[in-house]
Write a structure and sequence with these properties.
Chain lengths: 470, 482
């Protein structure tokens, strides 16, 4: 093998450079290819349509191969055996799954497939297992989950989960009247015994991110990141900001996202009013979602909205197929004083303009899908043989939240109390998850094999738990 | 037009050109026969233009659109040739600008046509620079810039597409910068191999370097007036014949050898066409030349060398083929049109286009008597889509039209006959070098006036960049402020 790669190999120390194959050069596919090349990976794009590929070739520094991604010859021609990650993001679920299966058999190390049809959702785990797909993403489901998070914590600007959903990390804006503002962190629970203990894992002040210690003080308008168990966090926000749980939610547009979302938030005890224009679709939704109020009507018609009690709603969510209608309806709801308005918008170019109108909760299934896949590939790139489970970057990577799964071995930190270990500066052991137990670590706690450990750090390029300790 | 970005990219290309003068300076200094200073002055002048552009101009908009890509390529080649002409002027070797510019363009475009008549006056340093332009121009200066300098813009594929020969762009590895590095590495290794082989067959190292660079870029400059005939050595001719044919092959093939993808090599349709054309031409030419030379072996010797020289668009000569029988000359004329494979350093229309055009012609014949037959044209085992067929057909027409229009404009000087003007235009567009008549292997372009020399320079640039980048410069809409 001709190893000229070595010349520039030295430049990329932070993450492994991988060969990544993106099948399907649609919006998600090309966005991914763009981001991945910017992260210095070698990207090969496969698509059936020569015109689409032409565009790709012109705008991105990638190799383009024309053909069907599930075709063995195409994959072999694109050197699948040297590929680290294959991302199947064509319009067809079936091709995506077949493509992942073929790629795995032909030597790809990891495969990610986009599978969006709710029909496959139940059998997805089985498919994933049988076809050896490492990660399957359903954009609509992921979007619904994201909206669900935003509804559960209406104050949150961002919600991340760790340790298979056991731990949540919430970002929110501190306000002057919040009880946590202006006190050193170590005194907060002493002064306000009602506020549950959560871990403050990062504070963003202006453009700077700090990893706080006991003496750090939260100021108004800071962006605060806290972690903890779901119930703990819920309680925390209840005492901090009062009981502003959302009860009545109105959703317009009865697509897949609405279906998944309704299903989930009903379980949280919210009441859902769902508006869908198409009578047949509305009928089917009403069959599938017996606990929701499904209405057949035009959700972008102001009269209809007022008639159905828009003003009594705690949240208004626009999920129609048309970005413009979502925006208009969302703006109307915001002006009517609905506390939480979420809109779906797939055109990422316009997100600044929308934010300037005051709509801060905008979700884009495409963005969520590509973010998810990017994060997954980053975690693989950071793996170096160790086991970063999840990687989350705050503020363009100024700080990182990393989740490690600790393996058996003779690492020096195993079983030692944390107080005897020396952490790197600006680094924090945020949470230790042992089985079902969640430990907010203090000096006496220790790390064992099998634990999931979440680290917050401002150091870059940490890929191994050993690097956290000096 | 994003002027700032264009200036910055041109500056970085000029930086590379300035650096490429270092070997010539070293050679001039080592031989001690003068002309270090003309090269040094030129390099300093280039730096005076390029350094401010490279260090102080930071365009905010780094988005290189198609338009800018083509303009950068065309302007880069014109600027490079202009600066590349300065050593000839400063040294007093070719004091007139039109002569020096012609020689420089002929070098960079790897044409190898020359206005030099008095080879004895050429110092080692100047001769080395003249041939070094072949080497740099062969693989492409933008490709070299991409290989050497950090990423200039996100959309560098426009640049390489405009500079690299062939109907479609194919990368060797996903990253453009790395593809460029690999290409130059293979180019260097092959050149080095020829250099060593030429020394083994008895050339002096200096001559070997000149001729190795001339072959690698498929240029054809020699430091002797008689070209390769000066050596009168079968060994030299064999080595050069083999390497001229090798440099006419798509460089992706050599990468397949490194990666041991033998299947990709054997299934390469263009390579098959190329080798078949070479073999057939050698056989035919040998047959035509037997009466002229009187023996099969010497007919084969001259036929082999000249076929390789013309089809690879190098233009070296071991005989004055202008005196050959007419069928032999016609065959060489045909080869001048065809050229070599896409992705090589050679010029001409490229074998892939000729092959597809022939298939298209065949399809059209079939269609006239069986219009209902659905016919797809396949190349490299894949169907060629109609848009590509269309652009190739149009390229073929444009090529012929430019050759004819060029010949017409050259004839306006009223100096030479039809054959001279026609083959002069063709040999410039195809980047071969010698034509027939007054511009034949025994003559040169020195007889033309300054106007004709500038026209020929334009034709050579147009041929090297495959027509459109140069033609774009002539289109007013490109320059409109949008």
């Amino acid at each position: 093998m001709f190893q000229i790669i070595g010349i520039s190999g030295g430049l990329m120390k932070e993450v492994d450079r991988m060969r990544i194959m993106v099948v399907g050069a649609g919006k998600v596919g090309s966005t991914l290819a763009d981001h991945l090349t910017k992260e210095e990976h070698d990207v090969v794009v496969i698509d059936n349509d020569p015109e689409v590929l032409e565009k790709c070739q012109d705008s991105l520094d990638v190799m383009c191969v024309q053909g069907n991604g599930a075709n063995m010859q195409t994959l072999v021609n694109a050197a699948i055996d040297e590929t680290d990650i294959l991302i199947a993001a064509t319009a067809s679920d079936e091709i995506n799954m077949l493509c992942s299966l073929a790629a795995k058999r032909l030597g790809a190390k990891y495969t990610i497939a986009r599978v969006r049809d709710p029909q496959y959702q139940e059998s997805l785990r089985m498919f994933q297992k049988v076809m050896d797909i490492d990660s399957a993403i359903n954009p609509e489901l992921a979007t619904a989950l994201e909206i669900g998070h935003l509804l559960r914590f209406p104050f949150a600007s961002n919600v991340e989960t760790f340790a298979k959903g056991k731990i949540e990390m919430i970002a929110f804006h501190a306000q002057a009247q919040d009880a946590i503002v202006g006190l050193p962190l170590k005194d907060i629970s002493a002064k306000n015994s009602k506020i549950p203990r959560v871990l403050y894992c990062a504070i963003q002040h202006g453009n700077k991110v700090i990893i706080p210690n006991g003496n750090s003080i939260i100021e108004p308008d800071d962006h605060v990141y806290v972690t903890g168990e779901h119930n703990n966090i819920k309680e925390y926000f209840r005492t901090l900001r009062g009981n502003r749980r959302l009860k009545n939610v109105m959703i317009i547009g009865g697509g897949r996202i609405s279906y998944y979302l309704t299903q989930r938030i009903i379980m949280d005890g919210m009441h859902v009013t769902l508006l869908e224009l198409d009578p047949k679709k509305a009928q089917r939704l009403s069959d599938e979602l017996p606990h929701a109020t499904v209405l057949c009507g035009d959700g972008t018609n102001i009269d209809t909205l007022e008639q159905e009690g828009l003003r009594n709603m705690d949240a208004f969510i626009c999920l129609t197929d048309r970005d413009e209608e979502n925006l208009m309806a969302g703006l109307y709801a915001m002006r009517s004083g609905i506390p939480k308005v979420v809109i779906k918008n797939n055109r990422s170019n316009y997100s600044d303009i929308i934010a300037s109108l005051g709509l801060d909760s905008v979700v884009s299934p495409k963005q969520i899908t590509s973010d998810y896949i990017l994060r997954y590939t980053r975690a693989i790139a950071n793996r170096h043989g160790s086991s970063v489970e999840k990687l989350y970057r705050l503020l363009d990577g100024q700080a990182e939240a990393l989740e490690f799964v600790v393996k058996e071995g003779n690492d020096k930190f195993l079983g030692k109390p944390l107080r005897d270990l020396h952490l790197k500066p600006n680094t924090l052991v945020a949470v230790i998850v042992r089985g079902d137990k969640i430990i907010t670590p203090f000096g006496n706690d220790y790390i064992e094999a099998g634990d999931s450990v979440i680290i917050m750090t401002c150091e870059r390029g940490i890929s191994n738990l050993n690097e956290v300790f000096r | 037009m994003n002027i700032l970005l264009v200036i910055r990219m041109l500056s970085s290309i000029l930086l590379v050109e300035a650096a490429s003068m270092i070997p010539s300076m070293a050679v001039a200094w080592a031989h001690g026969d003068g002309d270090v200073l003309p090269l040094l002055y030129t390099a300093l002048i280039i730096l005076a233009f390029a350094v401010p552009g490279f260090y102080f101009i930071r365009p905010k908009d780094k988005n290189l659109r198609v338009r800018e890509g083509f303009v950068v390529v065309a302007l880069a080649w014109i600027l490079m040739s202009t600066f590349g002409a300065l050593p000839f002027i400063f040294s007093g070797f070719l004091p007139r600008f039109s002569d020096a510019f012609f020689e420089s363009v002929s070098g960079f475009t790897t044409t190898g046509a020359t206005v030099v008549t008095d080879f004895g006056r050429m110092t080692h340093g100047i001769a080395f620079w003249r041939s070094f332009t072949h080497w740099v121009g062969g693989m492409g200066v933008l490709v070299l810039t991409l290989a050497l300098l950090p990423k200039l813009s996100d959309h560098t594929s426009h640049l390489v597409r405009a500079e690299s020969p062939g109907p479609s762009l194919s990368k060797i590895v996903p990253k453009m910068g790395e593809s460029a590095k690999i290409l130059y590495m293979m180019y260097f290794i092959l050149t080095l191999a020829e250099f060593l082989a030429l020394i083994v067959v008895g050339m002096k190292p200096y001559d070997a370097a000149i001729h190795a660079m001339g072959t690698a870029g498929t240029g054809g400059f020699s430091n002797y007036g008689e070209s390769v005939a000066y050596f009168q050595s079968v060994g030299v001719e064999i080595v050069m014949t083999v390497f001229m044919i090798l440099f006419g092959i798509n460089f992706a093939i050599y990468y397949f050898i490194f990666t041991r993808s033998w299947k990709d090599i054997f299934s390469n349709e263009e390579l098959r066409w190329y080798l078949i054309i070479v073999a057939l031409s050698i056989i035919l030419l040998t047959v035509f030349l037997i009466p002229y030379y009187g023996s099969v072996s010497s007919a084969f010797r001259y036929a082999g060398f000249q076929t390789a020289s013309i089809i690879s668009t190098s233009g070296f000569a071991t005989a004055n083929f202008d005196l050959w029988p007419v069928p032999a000359k016609m065959l060489l004329l045909l080869l001048t049109f065809i050229g070599s494979c896409a992705g090589s350093t050679a010029g001409g229309m490229k074998v892939v286009r000729i092959a597809i055009l022939l298939k298209q012609g065949k399809r059209e014949v079939r269609r006239t008597f069986q219009p209902r037959k659905v016919q797809t044209i396949r190349f490299e085992g894949k169907a060629v889509d109609e848009a590509m067929l269309h652009s190739i057909a149009l390229f073929g027409f444009t090529y012929v039209f430019i050759v004819l229009a060029g010949a017409f404009i050259l004839s306006l000087e009223g100096k030479y006959d039809l054959i001279t003007n026609l083959t002069a235009s063709l040999t410039c567009v195809s980047n071969v070098g010698p034509g027939f008549g007054a511009v034949g292997p025994a003559g040169g372009f020195s007889g033309y006036g300054p106007f004709a020399k500038m026209i020929s320079s334009f034709l050579m640039l147009a041929g090297r960049l495959e027509l459109y980048p140069m033609l774009i410069l002539l289109h007013p809409a490109v320059w409109r402020h949008t």
